[in-house]
Design a protein that fits this description.
Elements: H1 2-27, H2 30-56, H3 62-96
Helix pairs in contact: 1-2, 1-3, 2-3
Amino acid sequence: MDSFLIILTGFLIVIANIIGFMVFKKEKNLYSAAFIILLLAGVFGGLGIALALFIINDAFAIFYGLNLASYLLINSLIVFLLAILVTIIKKYNSIKM
C-alpha cells in the first residue's frame, strides 16, 4: 500500500508540472505556470485526501493528502524562484546590451 501512495505522489507531481508546462507554452509566462502549480497543490492535495480515505479507510489518511500538498507547494515555490531568476537574467542581459 505504501508503494502505491508513493507512486501516486510522484505521478501527481509530474502531472502538475506537465500542466504548468502546457500553461507556460500557451501563455509564455513563467509566473502563470507557477501560479497554476500552486493552485494544483490544493486540488491534488484534496484529491490525495479523498483517495487515501477511500483506499486506507482511516482518518489519519488525511495527512497523506496534506503531505502531497506540501510537496506540490515546495514544487511551485521552486518554479516561482526559477521564474524570478530568469527575469533577473533577462533584465541584466537587456541592460548589458
